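User: Hello! I'm new to structural biology and keep hearing that structure can be predicted from sequence alone. Could you demonstrate with ATP-binding cassette domain-containing protein? Please show me the input and the output so I can see what each looks like.

Assistant: Of course. The first part below is the input, the amino acid sequence of ATP-binding cassette domain-containing protein. The second part is the output, the predicted structure written as tokens.
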Amino acid sequence: MPMIEFKNVSYVYANTSEEAVRNISLTVHAGELKVVTGASGCGKTTLMRLANGLCPQIYGGKVIGSVNVAGCDVSATPVAELAEHVGTLFQDPEEQFFALNVGDEIAFALRSRGVAPETIEERVLAAADRLGITDLLKQDIHELSEGQKQKVGLASILALGPRVLIFDEPSANLDPEATESLAVTMGELKKEGAAILVVDHRLYWLKDVADEVIVMSKGRIEASGSWEMLRNDALRARWGLRRADVPDPRETLSPIDVAFGKTVPEAEESQSVFSANRMSFAYTPEKPVFTDASFAVPAGVTALIGSNGTGKTTLARILTGLNKAEGSFAVCGSAVGEGGLMPHSGLVLQNADHQLQMRTVREEVICAMEAGIAALNARKGFWQRFARVKLSESQIRRADEILKSLNLTHLAGRHPQSLSGGEKQRVVIACALVKNPAILILDEPTSGLDGANMACIAKLLKDEAARGRAVFLITHDLELLGICDRALRMRDLQPQNPIADAHA
């Protein structure tokens, strides 16, 4: 008997008339792993929600056909009961956190089920050890990197021992080494008899564990087959898929030189878009992140490279002025004054929800442009910061052009929170670009993007770099790293705390 079985399934969300998925039939047996992929909006997430019972039990709507998981009818079996058999790791692991520290989070569901304390401790340690996070068990969950949070979410699921596992973009926030380790873990779970359904845009990392690839478009299954199918360039182009094989470009990128205890030479600083002199930063005195580091970055795309938790996001926050570091900074050869780096920078955070607050996508982009102009006005004098910003027709046209370049025009009237993860990501990128910043920082900008939209982002970043911007790219996406001109490695910024990982 299949552990996951869809029979002629169609589904319509509540308060809509269009089918989100149409006539879906598929099975996943114990010891199998199947990958569902396709362009953004193709129905992958709905398929996942049908498999774990969120549709229709939480989202409402109507199901035609039948979905059975571990012998349970998902429409008739309460979600709490289904959770005994099905574990789901969502794309944003924070959505499923309840506790404040790592150990308590992994133990939470076990405690809620009344498992004996000695058994809980044993399972928590086993799950943490399996994912290499034993040293984080007492750590505050909110101090973790996004990749570390994802490992905690998976550990909390594995501690429960479900027979069916569903993964939503599980590689999105993991570095390549952690991604490879996750693939090994999935292979082990397969051998232990788990039925695994993976919904993902990134594909290369699953080639040794996937039993079947399922391609969706507009709610339908359009193609299915072995991994070899993904090596067909025409098929990938037709359905907007990522590559099946990806080389690792990290060690081939030219390094940014970093010096300690001295400033960047004046000639080098004058030719750079951004320079930092004797930069130091620490969240707590006993744990410095950067100490007395100096470097200069020219126009182009610069990758910030390092393992999860090594300071990439911290550096991005310094570059955009959200964290205040010691030292001095210059933009295009001019020292940064009291206004700090924020007026010069555009930031795209890893979690797009943290940057979206307006009623429509177009309002979001227009508001970002107004905020950018207001920040520049504030540098001119005290009273200018209170002047109301009125955009010109050419500025509004520029905002609309950016929406078009990111394939967002048809979503301009939508509420940002109604969009998919990949669509939200593109909206936040548009908001950063309309500020016309000298420094553009992107933290995992392709974590939820399909192949076609990733190519769109890659071209856009190269175009912006060609306009003279310093584009800082934080990404574990090996496909996107291929467009970078150089790399600033976290290990080079931390001489007193060398990172053992040769690829960090």
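User: So the tokens describe the shape?

Assistant: Right, they're a compact way of writing down the 3D structure. Reading them back into a model, for example: Residues 382-386, 497-504 have pLDDT under 50 and may be disordered.
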